[in-house]
Amino acid sequence: MCLYPKLVRNPKYRVNKKNGGKVPPLKDGRVAKVPIGCGYCYECLKKKANEWRVRLAEELKTSENGKFITLTFSSEAFEYLKNQVKPRKGYMLDNEIATYAVRRFLERWRRKYKKSVKHWLITELGGNGTENIHLHGIIFTENVDEIERIWNNGTIPYGFVWKGKKKGRRVINYVSERTVNYMVKYVMKLDEKHPNYKPKILCSKGIGVGYVNSIGFRKNGYKEGDTKEVYTTSNGLKIALPIYYRNKRYSEEEREKLWIEKLDKGVRYIGGDKVDAEDDETIEELLRYHQRLNSEWGYGSPETWKVKEYEEERRELMHEKRMAKLKEKKERENTDAKCYEEKGTRSPEKSKMPKKALNELTEARRLMKEMGINFDDIEII
After folding, report:
1. Alpha-carbon distance values, 143 to 102, 103, 347 (Å)
2. How far is it, in rounded angstroms, from Cα 26 to Cα 12?
3. Lowest-pLDDT range, 144-153, 166-175, 219-228?
């Protein structure tokens, strides 16, 4: 269970659109409020990661053409996309840009193939340089090269696409449960530079829905006092049934009955430890212990989650640094072009100059600038 749970009013017993303003009678006062997780602690993130691990593993049983992909953004693309999204700052800007780019990618895919492509992607911030936003995940298609073409086929190319390991002329790319385990670690990944950054998952609807046709799903059916509310993994481990499948398997009334059954048992689980629900002292002691571990492991606490202002400002400075480098690059290119035009020679970028020679020339220009030598005073032969 969550290490920092909150109790909120049960929406079922409030006036809303779903009940048309007619609130049903409350049969058990214990369900008037429902506990919700914080979404940040180790237990919440572990639950989220496990649920995606199950759903993706189920998806692989019916979709055999998954490709592990990494999608990146160049500085030029970041500058362009920044002007296309709603004004945002810090981490919100990163996730907004990634969301917009993926949406446009899917629109281009639909335009060409008349249908979207199944996908599961998660954002991550880099650890070096400008700490750029990028995405890891699975795209379900046989044509891996098409992913790169459509990703870079918009108004401006977005960036590099990692699409598999090269072996000779072939590209090896396949997805297995091992790949899934690698990807979902990003849900729980501790980022020392960005401790308050929350990765965003962008995915198709219905990932793992094939489980509803399985024998396991039928066994999950509601039986008063004896409901098998578990999922059995490929290695025989029984874990809690993911919420996605619970909502499909049980009606609202059945879910409430299951909850009341749990309350009647008088048992709570804190960090995997079983405790009597009436033993407030032990519950408090266990919560403090696991909350301390949560902080020591780097997952923070409500106090640290609220203190995000400095971190958001730092992220905004990283965005500005990236844009400043891009501006400097453009100005340098414009200066070079003007210089070569005045000298009546061709720019190295437009000539057939080898890459090594071009890099040496660029480095020489930089050193000359540091020594105070004007590049325009040198006659180019």
Report:
1. 18, 19, 38
2. 9
3. 166-175
For 363, phi then psi, to 5°, come to: -65, -35
Rg (CA), the chain: 27
With b meaning 16 or more CB within 10 Å and e meaning fewer, what string describes 234-255? eeeeeeebbebbbeebbeeeeb
β-partners of residue 275 are: 268
Q: Are 67 and 163 in contact (CB under 8 A)?
A: yes
Q: What one-letter code names the amino acid at 320? A: E
The pTM for the full model equals 0.80
- Which pLDDT score is estimated for 83? 93
Q: Which amino acid, one-letter code, is at 147?
A: I
Looking at the DSSP assignment, which residues form a beta bridge with residue 340? Answer: none
Question: Comparing C-alpha atoms, which of 116, 107, 169, 158 is closest to residue 133?
Answer: 158
Rounded distance between C-alpha atoms, residue 117 and residue 146, angstroms? 11
**pLDDT tens digits, one per residue of 253-289:** 999 999 999 989 999 888 888 999 889 899 999 999 9
CB under 8 Å to 303, separation ≥6 — which residues?
Answer: none
- The per-residue pLDDT for range 7-33, each reduced to its tens digit, is 899 998 999 888 888 999 988 888 899
